[in-house]
Write a structure and sequence with these properties.
two-stranded parallel sheet; three-stranded mixed sheet; mainly alpha; 29 helices; 5 strands
């Protein structure tokens, strides 16, 4: 509650000032005018037909259905857009019908509204798209339930609302506009991000790597079976290639693990390889983004060969260099089409390299084709999948030998295509149930948000009905649209929506006063407003609210509503709804600041599993599970993403800490984040050198992994309870490994030392501070004593 928060008035003033500034910020975003026009046409078609063959009330209902469906198609979701449009309109249609049946009994309708709002709040546990669409449907339902005049009329209104979604979905199917464009952009950004990483490694071997583009590309790779059959060829294998490049590039550049000195011919060769790999990745990203053939300069291909004078690199660096050359060859082969190679000079010319029946290209290194090339990364495919692919490859070879048609392609052309499965809407039901169960605990921000939305919507509806104006539903409507699970977005949206609504109502009200448009002209103005809203949707809440405010004023003008009443009532009631939403968050908050230690512990646990999985590959190569490292890496990325989101939200909150545990200051959080990033980077370096299953076991790795697992588990518990973190057993295992290691030390041992240093930095960052604030100094002194 408000009284229990450790927050000074100045902190609240600062937080409100920052969120207000963010809410009024106009962001630069790429505009999609054709898609906006298509969505506006969907609204226009529905409104026009409803006005011609029906009543103004039906026209308004159908317009809201098409409007809500259009809003759903603009959300950041990888689900097919027609499915989003149909789902949004179906949900709104059902809500409208049920709401009309109970709107005559206020308390029954309030109970229905509370239940619907609670479910809409819990929908955030499934994902942001589900939460936004559900909240929007609740808001629109509060308007549409007042339009029908009978039960049969309610059925007609519900049917027209659903028809609005059908029209939007039909337009998307009939007039597709870059249907794979967003997925192409996500994959190209991932490839370009790895290319940028390679270039930065040339000058800074310790350069950080941002996994966000790879996370987004993986999300974009989820497709339905129907999409998998229609997916463009370029969207098949490049994401796994980008994943395979990442550890090899880092290992090649690192002077400790790779072994290439910072000065000398070996470092020059490393820089040449990194630059050539970046060129190949950039060319591939450009081809994927534009849907073109891959165009490569011949200078990059010349670098990606072993020099005629002999290899320059040695040891781990040479192995990483050879793997990098093989990966760039895979990147070219993954095109599965002719590759254009440009040769500079006075007489510039272009040559085309086409794969033969064995997947070889002239001018590229000869490599044996791999059945599972580029589809599974360095972790290997699942045994069942590999067996099925080999059987399919054998069948195709028999067909070719018997005279059947066989199309030559790259080395992995015989591989069976696999994809990440996206569940259908029916398949989302068990996912939603599991999500609800997972969030049913008092500390869950999603549960607290659902309770907050439910209470605010109910109280807002009762308050709106008690006020003199006839359109009191604007109070709960605004509150439901403004509320979000976190503090910053709730207050940003509240300020942006209030200011945007005032401007939108003022502009639309002035037009209505001067022009006095009839129903058809009002409908046309509403369509123009919604078109601008679709176009500018990603530029900020204030701009979107301006267009939305104008749209509602023009749309209700179709009903002949007095525009003065509509404008001024909506402005005042919108302000009241926004204030109610922001006040509800202050009274019943879900602060992220107290969760920092839990999120940090989760990240450490995930990164520790990643390090243990990689170290186990050296300890027991023959027993390594095919997907063990990959799954641990994905868990690490998810935990890091959650941590970064929590930190960003906590920085905007007016509270620094509350609870019995020692606070995690901003400096401590930053130092701990740096330590865990270093821990993940060191593990990534070792990942590039995973041994084969036939490799012998390393006793030192066995000992180190056995010491690391319980130490990480104990450290996560210590961080949650604000206790000192100890790594004594890990240090002892590392010392024993050094004593029994050969010279030069193996890659795993050098990486283990980097891991241990990162763990020490983490322990120093999270050491609890006493009342005098001397925790770090005492810990540092103790660490120096132990080492001495």
């Amino acid at each position: 509650m408000l009284g229990n928060m450790n927050a000074a008035p100045l902190a609240w003033l600062r937080a409100l000032k920052d969120t207000a500034r963010s809410g009024l910020t106009v962001e630069r975003a790429s505009l999609t005018p054709l898609i906006a026009v298509r969505g506006a046409c969907g609204v226009g078609v529905v409104v026009g037909l409803a006005l011609l063959i029906g009543t103004p009330q039906l026209a308004v209902s159908s317009a809201f259905g098409a409007f809500a469906s259009g809003i759903a198609t603009f959300q950041r979701s990888w689900r097919p857009r027609p499915v989003l449009a149909l789902a949004a309109s179906a949900g709104l249609a059902i809500s409208t019908f049920l709401g009309y049946l109970l709107v005559g009994w206020p308390w029954a309708f309030v109970l229905l509204l509370a239940l619907w709002a609670f479910l809409a709040g819990m929908a955030w546990g499934i994902g942001p798209t589900s939460g936004v669409v559900a909240a929007f449907n609740i808001s629109v339902m509060l308007i549409t339930v007042h339009l029908p005049a009978s039960t049969l009329g309610a059925l007609s209104h519900a049917a027209l609302i659903a028809a609005g979604g059908v029209v939007q979905a039909g337009l998307i199917v009939l007039f597709p506009i870059r249907p794979w464009g967003e997925r192409r952009e996500a994959l190209a950004d991932a490839l370009a991000g790895v290319a940028d990483y390679a270039r930065r490694l040339r000058h800074d071997p310790m350069a950080p790597f941002d996994p966000e583009p790879l996370i987004e590309a993986r999300s974009a790779a989820y497709v339905t079976p129907r999409q998998a059959r229609r997916r463009p060829r370029q969207l098949h294998g490049y994401r796994a290639l980008a994943e395979r490049f990442r550890p090899v590039l880092a290992s090649l550049a690192d002077p400790v693990v790779g072994g290439a000195p910072m000065v000398g011919p070996e470092r020059d060769r490393v820089r040449e390889l990194l630059s050539a790999a970046a060129t190949v990745l950039d060319a591939t990203a450009r081809a994927v983004r534009r849907g073109e053939r891959v165009r490569l300069p011949d200078q990059a291909l010349d670098v990606l060969r072993v020099p005629k004078s002999g290899p320059v690199l040695s040891g781990p660096a040479r192995r990483a260099g050879l793997r990098l050359i093989a990966l760039t060859d895979d990147a070219v082969e993954a095109a599965q089409e002719p590759v254009e190679v440009t040769r500079g000079g006075v007489l510039a010319r272009v040559t085309w390299h086409v794969a033969d029946r064995e997947g070889r290209r002239r001018g590229f290194p000869d490599r044996a084709p791999l059945v599972d090339a580029s589809l599974d990364g360095p972790y290997g495919p699942d045994p069942e999948d590999l067996a099925a692919e080999e059987a399919e490859a054998a069948r195709l070879e028999e067909t070719k030998a018997a005279g059947g048609k066989h199309t030559p392609a790259a080395g992995h052309a015989l591989a069976r295509e696999r994809h990440l499965h996206m569940p259908t809407l029916a398949g989302l039901v068990p996912v939603a149930v599991r999500s609800f169960r997972r969030e049913l605990h008092w500390r869950s921000p999603i549960l607290r948000h659902a309770i907050r939305v439910s209470v605010v919507a109910s109280v807002g509806y009762l308050l709106g009905n008690a006020l003199p104006p006839a359109h009191g539903y604007w109070v709960p409507l605004t509150a439901a649209m403004v509320l979000r699970p976190d503090f910053s977005r709730t207050y940003e949206r509240g300020v942006g929506r209030f200011v945007g609504t005032l401007l939108g109502v003022a502009v639309a009200g002035t037009v209505m006063a001067l022009a006095s448009p009839g129903p058809y002209l009002s409908a046309a103005l509403a369509v123009v407003s919604v078109g601008f809203m679709y176009l500018l949707m990603r530029t900020g809440q204030a701009i979107t609210s301006i267009c939305t405010g104008a749209y509602v004023v023009f749309l209700l003008g179709i009903l002949g509503t007095d525009w003065y009443q509509t404008a001024y009532e909506r402005a005042g009631l919108t302000a009241l709804g926004g204030v109610l939403a922001m006040l509800s968050y202050a009274l019943f908050p879900a602060w992220e600041t107290p969760l920092l230690r839990d999120r940090l512990a989760d990240w450490l646990a995930a990164t520790g599993r990643y390090a243990i999985a990689v170290m186990d590959a050296f300890a027991q190569p023959a027993e390594r599970a095919p997907r063990q490292v990959r799954e641990a890496l994905l868990d690490t990325r998810a935990a890091r993403q959650t941590w970064e989101q929590t930190v960003n939200r906590a920085e905007a909150e007016p509270v620094r800490h509350r609870g019995t545990h020692s606070p995690l200051s901003r400096r401590s959080a930053s130092d701990a984040q740096s330590a865990l990033v270093t821990l993940g980077r060191a593990t990534m370096l070792l990942e590039a050198h995973l041994p084969d299953r036939e490799a012998p076991s390393d006793p030192g790795a066995v000992d180190f992994s056995a010491a690391l697992a319980p130490a990480v588990a104990a450290a996560t518990t210590a961080i949650r309870s604000s206790e000192p973190v100890e790594w004594g057993d890990v240090h002892d295992a590392l010392t024993r490994w050094w004593e029994q290691a050969d010279h030069p030390p193996p890659v795993a041992l050098r990486t283990a030392e980097l891991l241990t240093d990162a763990l020490d930095d983490l322990a120093h960052a999270v050491i609890p501070r006493d009342s005098s604030g001397r925790g770090r100094e005492h810990h540092a002194a103790g660490a120096r004593t132990d080492k001495s």
